[in-house]
Amino acid sequence: MISTFLVEHAPLVRIGFWVAVAAATLLAWVLHRLRLRRVLLGLSAVAVVAVLVLTLLPDGARPGGVTCTVQFSVPFQGIDTLANVAMLLPLVLFLGTATSRPLAVLTGAVALSAVIEVVQALAPVLGRRCDTNDWFMNTVGAVLGAVIALVICALERRRRTIAVSG
User: Fold this and answer.
1) Whole-angstrom Cα distance, residue 43 to residue 55?
2) How far does CA 151 lie from the centroid of its chain?
3) What domain range is 6 assigned to?
């Protein structure tokens, strides 16, 4: 039912995606500026749990053999692509801002995505299938989250430097 709605309203999903990215960016910036690191860490934990639930819980499909799709296309279209881009973006954004180390968080998130795809491949009981494009789009989202976190951290560092010297 939800997937049918999303497919039928694809333009709204794209708009909603960018609104959600803007809202998460604003939230991360405000929390970082107020030095509410624990809240950012809590949001990061929620994001990790969401990623694990969405990727590793059995989906109800009948378990079969290992099905992996190895492809090297750039699928910048469709609801699945946006969902995969959105998967790790909040985790990297919130944890990268909380720790002020977005590049280290990015590395961990890209590795997490690869591990998830391997687990999906090696555990057919989950009823999931691995796909290199899922990993690639997760990485695109993680990079976007890291870039936003880098900008937030740099702007706050600059603001604090100006406040101290001014």
Assistant:
1) 18
2) 17
3) 2-165
Collect all residues with Cβ–Cβ distance below 8 Å to 83 and sequence separation of at least 6: none
The three-state secondary structure class of 166 is coil
pTM of the model: 0.89
Percent of the chain at pLDDT > 70 equals: 89
Phi/psi at 110 (nearest 5 deg)? Answer: -65, -40
User: What is the secondary structure of 37-106 as a DSSP string?
Assistant: HHHHHHHHHHHHHHHHHHHHS--SSPP-S--EE--------SHHHHHHHHHHHHHHHHHHHHHT-HHHHH
> Is residue 76 predicted with pLDDT exceeding 70?
no
SS3 state at 142: helix
Q: What is the pLDDT of residues 32-70, one digit of tens each?
A: 999 999 999 999 999 999 999 999 988 766 555 657 788
Q: Structure tokens of 142?
A: 């993680």
What is the tally of structural domains in the chain?
1
Residue identified by tokens 């296309």 is 73
Number of H helices, E strands in the chain: 6, 2
Neighbouring-strand partners of residue 68: 130
